[in-house]
Write a structure and sequence with these properties.
The complex is a heterodimer of chains A (533) and B (425).
Chain A: E1 5-11, H1 15-24, E2 31-34, E3 51-52, H2 63-82, E4 86-87, E5 91-95, H3 98-114, E6 119-123, H4 124-130, E7 138-142, E8 146-148, H5 150-163, E9 167-169, E10 174-179, E11 185-189, E12 193-201, H6 207-214, E13 220-231, E14 243-244, E15 255-258, E16 264-267, E17 271-273, H7 283-296, E18 305-317, E19 327-330, E20 338-342, H8 348-364, H9 390-399, E21 406-408, E22 413-414, H10 415-422, H11 431-438, H12 451-462, E23 481-482
Parallel strand pairs in A: 1-2, 1-12, 2-9, 5-14, 12-20
Antiparallel strand pairs in A: 3-8, 4-8, 5-7, 6-7, 10-11, 11-12, 13-16, 13-17, 13-18, 15-16, 19-20, 21-22
Chain B: E1 4-12, H1 16-27, E2 33-36, H2 65-79, E3 83-84, E4 88-93, E5 103-109, E6 112-123, E7 127-129, H3 132-135, E8 145-147, H4 148-156, E9 160-161, E10 165-169, H5 173-184, E11 188-194, H6 203-210, E12 217-219, E13 221-227, E14 234-239, E15 252-255, E16 258-261, E17 265-267, H7 270-274, E18 299-301, H8 312-331, E19 340-344, E20 348-352, E21 355-356, E22 362-368, E23 372-381, E24 384-394, E25 400-404, E26 415-421
Helix pairs in contact in B: 1-2, 1-8, 4-5, 5-6
The chains are: A alpha+beta (533), B alpha/beta (425).
């Protein structure tokens, strides 16, 4: 048992849970975030197109429409405060037929009803001025749509929450929730028990299960599985903004988009699935994505494929058998002081902070929160060597020679950046965590050059034994151990050039698992947490 | 202010190509040169190639990769040829404005950012491996899928064991060498699966790495699914038809914890492209003339960054030839202009160089695009056969080189190289 009683426990450290943690840390509250994975955004929050939506594709009056428009409006300021990449590059919905033109006019009118601004129809000439490489006769142009880095958006929200006192507990999958006679919630995870006055269900794909545990039963959740293909950055300049086809209110269609780092994305497939943990990409989907994408953007070349991935959106199927709106509720009758978020799918990334503020407003209708006077909304952006002008690069190397050691060649990520990721406020112990924070291993060689160095740095810096190192998922160990006994390495990762490097032996010890006491994933908060059970 | 230094020759990469180029430049009298190596030691990929088979051509004996590199490194050190390690070239660019012909090379190291104004830049960056993502192999994305070179680095350089029960996709040389290496380190290799109807690697590796260890080679097979949510639990392999498409109903599930990929090497030309160097879609390396000069004056290219070689010895040899031409260029000797194209005819996968002068002897490197027996390699200029040679056997795995004397060449008219089945008379 974690003896301290939390004011709010948030179940789920994705973008919505992290937005709730960050926004709640504006108030004097003891906040804990329980995450089943070893890092934030290892599920839906990190597996999507990374588009900041305009808010036109949702039914008027819905929470999706309202919170998307609000979320879109606040994204510029959030990016500035939290230091993640965001570009209001606009987006086009491309059509060819009269019916599609009519449909786009409806979408535009719906968007305007929803409060989305900057929507206009453009003819073929203007479309080609906006996106020269696209195939289409006209388009709806949404100038306020944009793209963001979904990994760093989530990480930044979480880090800022931690800076302001929230605690993250990774590898803590929730197994049971009970409400005691004292009105406190007891949340059991695979490693510990936590007690809290409030609980927020921000479990994403697990929202139905957690809702059942809270006693709010009966929500039917299905997955919408989205497969994607990532193309080489060299094609990025040909996609200045996301290119969509004409959408329905439930499916956005195959699109050609780009990441804030300039990679082109083809996707998603949107297949219904009951298996919310299968992240495989099928061959026929890869062919389908290719065939559909070349129709609107004829530059797809299989030689530019870098990687495929997929994400799963939790969709709530409502009483009418239709995909429901965001469900955000407090059931004072069944589960007082529990905020239940169900079916938070797209546009959840765009809307996340708006959702968090909506949640807090509901909580404050029931309780008075005291302002956290030391709240700091700013989480400084970590410089990226590759993006800096030479003079600035030179200055950084002078300050710290680690900035001069390029570890990831494709994306020009330096040792300093990797070390900063490993030692960031949110505990980063996995290779995927380093990858998401730095872009290392994300380039065209996919870590062929740098992954060994990064694995070694993680082992050394965190004292992780070789066989305990994890790529991403809990049991996803890259190594079975060492080849030979004893720690000798021909490729030490610390030291200076021209030989004579010290060989640092890893300190043995575990970081995760097997520990009955919750290990706070947040180093900053470590000494304020009671560890005894 | 970033320090800028003038230099005659800057060599990007301290592997077999870069080292050989440096030594030959030095022997040709070029002393103002620098090897720039991104790793902490010279040697490039040879550092992790602890198997033998290197040096038969260069030294007349069989050496391991580190031993082979060591011969060159010792000589570089003995001669005092300057090199920097742990230093990455960030860019190669043309100088601002119109001035003397040199290239600006920017490097980063813990010592700082540096700029070099180099008369000649020698591209010797080698190649990288094709990845799962580039092939778009379907299935889940568990830990346990490694390219052969990455697995080799983990075992040989980092003392990390990445596999216990392995399947290898692709019969490239590194894949076969890793089949043996994994076996020697106690892992079990279930088999090597190759999509083509013939092996991608050298016959000697099929013998020494697979046959000698009873590791089966399955031709016309590929991996069609990957299983495992966290660590790999198995792969599905299928037979493929003549168009290399998987045949439904032939799927076979193989439980394993590791999939090693040896599915091709790609010359690492990102720096070259940024420098404006034109690439050959066949080799994915630079288009070069007989002096190994690229489409950008003063930028030369040799070794695996130019085209993937079968043996390191030939890389060293090619880089030595490059250095002969580059040293003449640096000294200001006019190089004959190369306006004639060398074209791929029937049976030819690629040729290097792609442009010649028609006035000088040169060495032609090529690969066939399919295995052939009892065939004839023919060079034609202006439709006229100028050279013809019988080959008992030609494999895509093996690089073919031919020395072409200038006396058989005419100073105008493109060359066509073809390899065809011998016509029975």
């Amino acid at each position: 048992m974690n003896n301290s009683v939390y004011d709010v426990l948030i179940i789920g450290g994705g973008v919505v849970g992290s937005a709730c943690a960050r926004e709640l840390s504006r108030w004097s509250l003891k906040i804990g975030v329980l995450e089943k994975n070893l890092d934030v955004c290892f599920e839906t929050s990190g597996r999507n197109t990374g588009v900041c939506h305009g808010g036109f594709a949702y039914d008027p009056g819905s929470l999706k429409a309202r919170l998307c428009v609000e979320g879109n409006r606040m994204m510029g300021q959030l990016a500035e405060e939290l230091g993640f990449s965001f570009r209001r590059c606009g987006k086009v919905l491309v059509g060819n037929t009269d019916e599609e033109y009519e449909q786009l006019l409806k979408v535009k009118a719906q968007g305007e009803t929803n409060g989305a601004s900057g929507l206009r129809m453009v003819d073929e000439q203007e479309l080609h001025r906006l996106v020269p490489s696209v195939v289409g006769k006209f388009a709806l142009f949404s100038e306020n749509s944009g793209i963001l880095d979904p990994f760093m958006f989530t990480v930044a929200l979480a880090e800022n929450a931690v800076q302001n006192g929230a605690e993250y507990f990774f590898d803590n999958e929730v197994t049971g929730i009970e409400r005691g006679e004292d009105g406190l919630w007891t949340v059991e995870t695979i490693h510990a028990l936590f007690r809290s006055r409030w609980v927020i269900n921000a479990a994403g794909l697990g929202c139905g299960r957690i809702s059942d545990m809270l006693g709010i039963t009966g929500y039917r959740i299905i997955g919408s599985k989205d497969d994607y293909i990532i193309l080489d950055r060299r094609m990025g300049p040909l996609v200045p903004m996301p290119i969509y086809t004409v959408p329905s209110n439930t499916y956005m269609g195959i699109h050609v988009s780009l990441t804030t780092d300039g990679n082109v994305l083809l996707g998603p497939t949107a297949e219904e699935t009951d298996d919310l943990s299968y992240y495989g990409v099928a061959r026929h989907n890869l062919d389908y994505l290719y065939e559909e994408a070349v129709k609107i953007w004829p530059h797809v070349d299989r030689g530019d494929y870098i990687r495929t991935y997929c994400g799963i959106l939790p969709k709530w199927i409502d009483e009418n058998g239709k995909i429901g709106d965001f469900k955000i509720e407090i059931r004072d009758d069944i589960a007082p002081r529990a905020v239940n978020l169900v079916g938070i799918e797209s546009p959840g990334l765009t809307a996340s902070v708006a959702i968090a503020r909506y949640v807090i407003a509901m909580m404050r209708e029931r309780e008075t929160f005291e302002v956290n006077s030391s709240f700091d909304p700013v989480r400084p952006r970590m410089p990226r060597f590759a993006e800096l002008p030479p003079e600035e690069q030179a200055r950084l190397i002078e300050e710290d020679p680690d900035w001069g050691e390029v570890i990831c060649r494709c994306e020009k990520v330096t040792r300093a950046e990797i070390l900063r990721a490993i030692h960031s406020p949110l505990d980063c112990t996995t290779m995927a965590g380093v990858k998401y924070r730095t872009r290392s291993m994300m380039g065209r060689c996919q870590g062929g050059y740098c992954q060994m160095r990064i694995a070694r740095m993680l082992e050394d810096e965190k004292g992780i034994r070789p066989e305990e190192l994890v790529y991403m998922r809990r049991d996803g160990h890259p190594f079975f151990g060492t080849v030979r006994d004893g720690e000798t390495s021909a490729a030490p990762v610390s030291g200076t050039a021209h030989g004579g490097e010290p060989i640092s032996a890893p300190v043995s010890g575990t970081v995760h698992g097997g520990d009955p006491a919750p290990v706070p994933a947040t180093e900053a908060a470590a000494d304020t947490t009671g560890g005894a059970s | 202010m970033i320090h800028r230094q003038k230099i005659d020759a800057l060599i990007v990469g301290g592997g077999p190509a870069g080292l050989a180029a440096a030594l030959q430049l030095y022997r040709c009298g070029i002393r103002d040169l620098l090897i720039v190596e991104r790793e902490r030691q010279l040697g490039g990929i040879l550092r992790q190639c602890i198997h033998d088979g290197f040096g038969l051509t260069q030294f007349g004996e069989t050496l391991s990769g580190p031993e082979y590199a060591g011969r060159f490194i010792d000589e570089v050190k003995r001669l005092g040829i300057p090199f920097v390690t742990n230093t990455t070239v960030l860019s190669i660019a043309a100088p601002e404005g119109s001035g003397p012909s040199f290239r600006i090379v920017t490097t980063a190291s813990p010592e700082g950012l540096k700029e070099y104004a180099a008369k000649a830049v020698i591209l010797a960056m080698g190649c990288r491996e094709r990845t799962r993502g580039a092939l778009a192999i379907p299935g889940e994305r568990p830990t346990g899928v490694f390219t052969a070179g990455v697995a080799q680095a983990y075992i040989n350089l980092y003392n990390r064991m990445p596999a216990r029960e392995a399947v290898i996709l692709g019969s490239g040389d590194i894949g076969m060498i890793m089949a043996r290496r994994l076996t020697l380190e106690g892992a079990h290799v279930q088999g090597v699966y190759e999509v083509m109807p013939y092996a991608a690697g050298l016959p000697r590796n099929i013998e020494q790495c697979l046959h000698d260890y009873d590791i089966p080679l399955h031709l016309s097979h590929t991996v069609t699914d990957i299983h495992g949510g966290s660590r790999l639990t198995g792969v599905t392999v299928s037979r493929v038809d003549e168009d290399l498409q998987p045949i439904p109903g032939t799927e076979q599930y193989i439980p394993c914890d590791t999939l090693i990929l040896s599915v091709g090497l790609i010359p690492e030309n990102e720096l070259s492209l940024e420098a404006g160097v034109e690439l050959d879609p066949r080799t994915r390396g630079a288009l070069v003339d007989e002096h190994f000069m690229t489409s950008v004056e003063g930028i030369f290219s040799a070794g695996n960054v130019l085209h993937v070689h079968d043996l390191a010895d030939y890389v060293s040899e090619e880089a030595t030839r490059l250095a002969d031409a580059a040293s003449a260029y640096i000294a200001g000797d006019p190089l004959p202009s190369c306006t004639l194209y060398v074209l791929c005819g029937d049976g030819t996968g690629h040729v290097v160089p792609q442009r010649i002068s028609g006035r000088t002897d040169f060495r032609l490197s090529l690969r066939v695009n399919r295995p052939m027996e009892d065939c004839r390699i023919t060079l034609r200029q202006n439709g006229r056969e100028i050279l013809s040679r019988h080959l008992r056997k030609a494999l895509p795995a093996e690089m073919i080189t031919l020395d072409i004397p200038s006396r058989i060449l005419s100073a105008d008219g493109d060359l066509t190289v073809s390899v065809e089945k011998e016509v029975q008379s």
